[in-house]
Design goal:
Length: 237
Amino acid sequence: MNLMMAELHDAVADVKQGRSAVLIADGEAVFRTGLRRVLESLGRYEVVGEASTAQEVARLLRSIEPQLVVMDLALARQVGLEAHRLGGLLPRPPKVVLLTGDGGHEGLEEALDAGARGFVTKNLDAGLLDAVLRHVLVNGCAIAPELFGGLMDRPATSRAQFARSHHRIGLLSDSERHVLELLGHGFENAQIAEELHLSRASVKTYVSRLLSKLHLDNRTQAALVANEIGLTSSGRA
């Protein structure tokens, strides 16, 4: 299975030495136990906490400051799919990977808008889950292909909108195209500014312009288009 949002690349192998602190959040004790065993068997992760309720998630985010949160989508909705509730306002906000059990794409767009870095199914094998988490830890963004493809299973008007966006790529300037590529990799404005040596105000302007030129509504749609047309296929070192 290949990930379609921000290709897994060689940088994944360079995740810092030592183990990354992980918070597991899921309402099912059996699943949490199984996931803990899988993660700890990989030798790269230390499960520093488990949460079964929204209240426990909020408490543990503040008290243990994990680097990574692996959370069930249903529980994330109880927490609240807003960036600040997913830990975005913490001094060192964790990377969040959401798990869904139904194989559908429902909730993907709102999850990404809330700042989640990954959205995958619970039936991933250990190797692929490891690749996803390592990619997210180096600021990547990973979406399981069956979920990514499902975003196009929507009314014809929405499909036509994305098709028109593809045809309008040629209207972008080189700078706007570079910004679109980084949006496809899940970069935030501050990261884009640092990568391209621009001010945050300039990045904001570029994002606004490219959304207008492509007739898109938000960054999530732009990231999807960037991946669909292959802007992110070369990976990032």
